[in-house]
Amino acid sequence: MKKIAVMTSGGDAPGMNAAIRAVVRSGLHYDLEVYGISYGYKGLCEGDIRKLDRYDVTRIISRGGTILGSARYPEFQERKVREKAVEKLNELGIEAVIVIGGDGTYRGAQALNEMGIKCIGLPGTIDNDISSTDYTIGFFTSLQTVVDSIDKLRDTSMSHKRCSVVEVMGRYCGDLSLYAGIAGGSEFIITPETGFDKEILINGLTSSHEIGRKHAIVVVTENMVNVHELAKEIEERTGFETRTTVLGYVQRGGDPVAFDRVLGTEMGEYAVQLLVNGKSGRAVGLKAMDYVDYDINFALNKKREIPNKRYGIIGRLK
Ligand code: F6P
């Protein structure tokens, strides 16, 4: 194998640049030519591919976003579209691609792998919703952003004796909300894993208000409830004046925290090693603080482990 490529796909995540840098530097270490594919599978099909040298990745380890750009490209599910991608790679003699992204990205990699392009998947998403790894690249940076925001919201909520409803990203995974709820000392968290019982929340907030608590923070994972309507109902039924904050895309930006830089770097290097050792169709993960790799099919179908112990804590600390 002489030429490999790297790309980022799906929602960007802080730490992706660290992974790109590691793939380039370690690829060069093994005398490979390393190419960067811009804007994920879309760029791949359009042939938006360029050779990278060590200086192209200088000082990117500390930068958020992805220097390669990213995109969602559902068209890649069509075989004809994928054939175009294979053609572009063959034209340049690129035999393997390291893809960094979420489960949609992994599905693309699995399909490409079946069409003869060696693929390795790295988990890059703020959602931490990939079951083949304990943590995804980007999760801890995003978590810090959410916690910083909750800290700020607490200041103003306490000053005004208010309840703050905070909507957090995660798609259909509650990890960002859960960890942020713990680290931010929030009183209630609502996630896909806990489910949502409005009456329990309303009763809890009513009792908090009645015993004179000055404020409450309710963290809610996106896609679960309409947080604006929920806030209205809390205000009407609990006695707490209530405000809503949808944190939105700030959760995806920012310089990666040290852990995401380490994760991106070590996973990027691990991926290159897999290719050098003749492996393909693998998904890299961190399990119990050790790097592992699984068949991408297995990774895609693996059931996510729910951190039940962590969920238990919240109720006992209110
Ligand atoms: O997957 C990361 C994520 O930020 C989710 O948390 C969110 O639901 C989604 O991406 C938003 O996607 P888009 O960038 O396509 O709007």
3D architecture notes:
With 318 residues, this protein is of the alpha/beta class. 43% of the residues lie in helices and 19% in strands. It contains eleven helices and eleven strands. It has helices at 16-29, 40-46, 79-92, 103-114, 139-160, 175-183, 198-210, 227-238, 258-276, 296-301, 308-317, and strands spanning 3-8, 33-37, 49-52, 96-101, 118-123, 162-168, 188-190, 216-221, 241-246, 282-287, 290-295. A seven-stranded mixed beta sheet has the order 3-2-1-4-5-10-11, with helices on both faces. The chain has a four-stranded parallel beta sheet with strand order 7-8-6-9, sandwiched between helices. A hairpin with a 2-residue loop joins strand 10 and strand 11. Helix 2 (40-46) crosses helix 3, helix 5 packs across helix 6 (175-183) and helix 6 packs parallel to helix 11 (308-317). It is elongated, with a radius of gyration of 22 Å. The mean pLDDT is 97. The structure holds 6-O-phosphono-beta-D-fructofuranose.
Characteristic key phrases:
alpha/beta; 19% strand; 318 residues; binds 6-O-phosphono-beta-D-fructofuranose; four-stranded parallel sheet; elongated
Q: In what order do the strands lie side by side in the largest sheet?
A: 3-2-1-4-5-10-11
Distance between the termini: 57 Å
Characterize the largest beta sheet: strand count, sense, and whether it forms a barrel: 7 strands, mixed
- Which whole number gives the mean pLDDT? 97
Note the beta-strand portion: 15-25%
**Which structural class should the secondary elements be placed in?**
alpha/beta
Write out the distinct hetero groups bound to the structure.
6-O-phosphono-beta-D-fructofuranose
